[in-house]
Write a structure and sequence with these properties.
The longest helix has 24 residues, at about 125-150. Strands 13-12-1-5-3-19-20 form a seven-stranded antiparallel beta sheet. It is an alpha/beta fold. It folds into two domains: about 15-140 and about 325-480, nicotinate phosphoribosyltransferase; about 150-320, Aldolase class I (TIM Barrel, Alpha-Beta Barrel). The chain has helices at about 15-25, 55-60, 65-75, 80-90, 120, 125-150, 165-175, 185-190, 200-205, 210-220, 235-250, 265-280, 295-305, 315-320, 430-445, 445-450, 465-480, and strands at about 30-35, 50, 95-100, 105, 110-115, 155, 180-185, 225-230, 260, 285-290, 310-315, 330-340, 340-345, 360-370, 375-380, 390-395, 405, 410-415, 415-420, 425, 460. It has 17 helices and 21 strands. It binds adenosine-5'-triphosphate, 1-O-pyrophosphono-5-O-phosphono-alpha-D-ribofuranose and nicotinic acid. Nicotinic acid binds near residues 157, 198 and 291. Belongs to the NAPRTase family. InterPro entries: Aldolase_TIM, N/Namide_PRibTrfase, NAPRTase_C, NAPRTase_N, Nic_PRibTrfase-Fam, Nic_PRibTrfase_pncB, Nicotinate_pribotase-like_C. Pathway: Cofactor biosynthesis; NAD(+) biosynthesis; nicotinate D-ribonucleotide from nicotinate: step 1/1.
């Protein structure tokens, strides 16, 4: 069964009950501002790589309620006809700002801001979080894995282990944003113009009477790019020697692109011995691909041990981010609008770490003046003009050190307006252009922030004006709620 041609119903019931409630309890045109941000970085990292904007905007643009959707909602006996008519004529009228896909983003920074009628923007919460949390999680995991691979090409091999078809498809795209070079997922290749690549499964070898028969049959069909899986029986005593025999025949016929894949055992010792055997047989250019539940820790360790690797296939650990499988990005109301005036809103909580930032905001990356070296981020109110010297406050309400004098910086805004009603204000760049942009952004961050283990925290501040607003709203609500 298809999920559907749009995600209008892929949401929590409470989004509909609130939306219908806003229509009845408040003015239908009552507007507000929502932010999407997250607090905790998966894998104890210090940032995530934003991803999913393209699908998010497509879904908003395409959002509609078909007759049968309306009929289903009517059958729940919860909603009045006025609300169902509103849904029937639904189209986006919100303004949306977002950081471009590929941007490294730190906790508490709004990676998307939605401003528009509350009853409309409320309906976006669940599916926007579903899309952005998933793709950002996988892009971030892919960045960790490709960073550990230190320039060696990583192919995404995870479709079979992904949590469902949509995770396989959009996960493959996110993997490219995070630095992978290709995918084995053909649908992702077609849909997102990603190079598809791969070798063979053990079933190919097992289907023939012998390993050498299987290799030769493959070589006859694919002589120009012959990559053979050598671990079905015995890598060093049969797999690699048989592969060499096959390559020798192909070489005699004028072919030159050869490779093997190792998918089990001690990858370091096996790859080193396989490399030696291939070199001694006259195949120094034959590529060794490795796979088998790889992740950033194993890859880093293998390289440290001196494994001989030319390429890596990474499946389950990348496509599911299994070591840290949740990004809990949230959708929080930051303001309502009355007569064109923004009234800041806040979520207080028993846990101080969950305190939100009120108002319509922008997030800036701060660079040492005249350089591309970023040293901090600053969250400000959107209409604030940043002074030359700022007595900033740490954005993390749990932080011990609260104040910082910022000067000699150049501030570059991270969010841009991406949608205005039904009008898309951004083009969708090719996924490799997003990868390139992401690498440029990462090159501007301190290396210590990008470290795999115990990375340095990158400072995120808020302006004194935003801090004052936050404190004022806190006092107002603790006195009057
Ligand atoms: N030299 C190594 N150092 C660290 N980890 C390694 C090394 N070689 C392999 N690994 C990793 O160890 C894990 C276990 O590999 P191993 O082949 O022993 O077991 P397996 O996955 O059960 O094998 P199989 O695929 O044959 O079932 C895999 O995640 C693999 O990537
Ligand atoms: O290990 P991953 O990172 O997910 O990479 C993808 C895995 O998919 C294939 O395994 P297969 O489904 O044939 O199972 P097996 O090799 O574990 O038996 C391939 O041989 C890799 O091992
Ligand atoms: O092409 C491959 O080698 C491949 C593809 C998916 C999963 N494992 C391996």
């Amino acid at each position: 069964m298809k999920v559907g041609d749009n995600l209008a119903l892929l949401t929590d019931l409470y989004e509909f009950t609130m939306s219908a409630g806003f229509q009845r309890a408040l003015d239908r045109e009552q507007r507000g501002v929502f932010d999407i941000f997250y607090r905790q970085v998966p894998d104890n990292g210090s940032f995530v790589i934003a991803a999913g904007l393209q699908q998010a905007l497509e879904e908003i643009q395409n959002m509609h309620f078909a007759k049968e959707d309306i009929a289903y909602l009517r059958s729940l006996n919860i909603f009045d006809e006025e609300f169902l008519t509103y849904l029937q004529n639904f189209k986006n009228t919100c303004d949306i700002w977002a950081v471009p896909e590929g941007t490294p983003i730190f906790p508490r920074e709004p990676l998307m801001t939605i401003r528009g009628p509350l009853m409309e923007a409320q309906l976006y919460e669940t599916f926007l979080l579903n899309i952005l949390n998933h793709q950002t999680l996988i892009a971030s995991k892919a960045r960790r894995i490709t960073a550990a691979a230190a320039g060696l090409p990583v192919m995404e091999f995870g479709a079979r282990r992904a949590q469902g078809p949509s995770s396989a498809l959009f996960g493959a795209r996110a993997a490219i944003i995070g630095g992978a070079v290709a995918t084995s997922n053909v649908l992702a290749g077609k849909k997102f113009d990603i190079p598809v690549s791969g070798t063979m499964a053990h079933s190919w070898i097992e289907a023939f009477d012998s390993e050498i028969d299987a290799f030769n049959a493959w070589a006859d069909i694919y002589p120009d790019n012959c990559s053979l899986l050598v671990d079905t029986y015995d890598i060093l005593n049969s797999g690699v020697p048989n592969a060499i025999k096959t390559f020798q025949r192909l070489k005699g016929e004028g072919h030159s692109s050869f490779g093997i894949r190792i998918d089990s055992g001690d990858i370091t010792s096996l790859s080193r011995q396989a490399r030696k055997m291939l070199d001694e047989a006259g195949f120094p250019d034959a590529k060794i691909t490795i796979s088998n539940s790889l992740n950033e820790e194993i890859i880093s360790s293998l390289l440290h041990q001196g494994a001989q690797i030319d390429a890596l296939g990474v499946g389950e650990e990348l496509i599911t981010s299994s070591s840290s499988p949740v990004l809990s990005g949230v959708y929080k109301l930051a303001a309502v609008e009355r007569d064109g005036e923004l009234i800041p809103k806040i979520k207080l909580s028993a846990s101080r770490g969950k305190l939100t930032l009120p108002g319509l905001k922008q997030v800036y990356r701060l660079y040492h003046k005249g350089t591309n070296e970023a040293f901090a981020d600053l969250i400000a109110l959107k209409d604030e003009r940043l002074p030359i010297v700022i007595h900033a406050v740490t954005a993390d309400p749990m932080a011990i050190k609260q104040n910082k004098l910022l000067n000699n910086f150049e501030a570059r805004p991270l969010q841009t307006e991406v949608m205005n009603g039904t009008k898309l204000l951004t083009s969708t760049p090719d996924v490799f252009a997003i990868q390139k942009f992401s690498k440029q952004q990462l090159a501007e961050l301190p290396e210590a922030t990008q470290r795999r283990l115990n990375p340095d925290e990158f400072p995120v501040y808020i302006t004194p004006q935003l801090y004052a607003l936050q404190q004022a709203v806190i006092s107002q609500y603790t006195e009057n709620y």
